[in-house]
Design goal:
There is one protein chain. This protein is an alpha+beta fold. It has helices at about 15-40, 50-65, and strands spanning about 70-75, 80-90, 100-105, 115-120, 125-130, 135-140, 145-155, 160-165. It has an eight-stranded antiparallel sheet. A hairpin with a 2-residue loop joins strand 4 and strand 5 (about 125-130). It is elongated. The model has no long low-confidence stretch (mean pLDDT about 85).
Length: about 160
């Protein structure tokens, strides 16, 4: 009779192999739950119907900008954050005392910036950004009467030309 000494269960390879597989699955699942909670998507607006009606108003404001032949040249200084806007339009355009400039990041709402530009001379506006935008943005320049926007990758080389489309 030959006696072979068997190793205890905790020294067997296949026991640990079978224990480790579910453990890896649990750790991976917890990691994905953490990632989903930290990087959750923005919730749809509760007032989505009013937002939809506002889109039609924006189209009307774009038509006004098109009728006035509005053009803007925007300079964003990456170092100081200064914004210079030079407006052009058809003759007889009354330039407002201030413009609203929105920078909407396409995927991260926390990177959005809103800026009120003040007039330094007729058709010339200046403002100061909190931080220099980097990435893909929608630039939105508007007043209560007209609206222009453009998608652009920032920082941009030179001037950003914006017109009613």
């Amino acid at each position: 009779m030959s006696t072979t000494a068997q190793r205890p269960w905790y020294r067997q390879f296949w026991v640990w192999f079978i224990i480790v597989l579910p453990f890896i699955s649990i750790v991976g699942s917890l990691y994905f739950v953490y990632t989903a909670v930290v990087n959750r998507d923005d919730v749809v607006s509760g007032d989505w119907y009013q937002d939809g009606k506002a889109i039609n108003e924006d189209f009307a404001r774009v038509d006004v900008a098109r009728e006035l032949d509005m053009h803007a040249s925007i300079i964003l200084d990456d170092i100081s954050g200064e914004v210079l806007v030079s407006m052009q339009g058809s003759k007889g355009v009354q330039w407002p005392a201030s413009l609203k400039l929105n920078l909407y990041h396409v995927t991260q709402k926390v990177r959005d910036q809103t800026l009120n530009l003040t007039a330094v001379s007729p058709g010339e506006y200046r403002g100061q950004l909190d931080k220099a935008p980097v990435g893909f943005y929608t630039i939105d320049l508007s007043t209560n009467d007209w609206h222009m926007s453009k998608d652009i990758n920032l920082p941009a080389e030179g001037n950003i030309d914006l017109s009613a489309q």
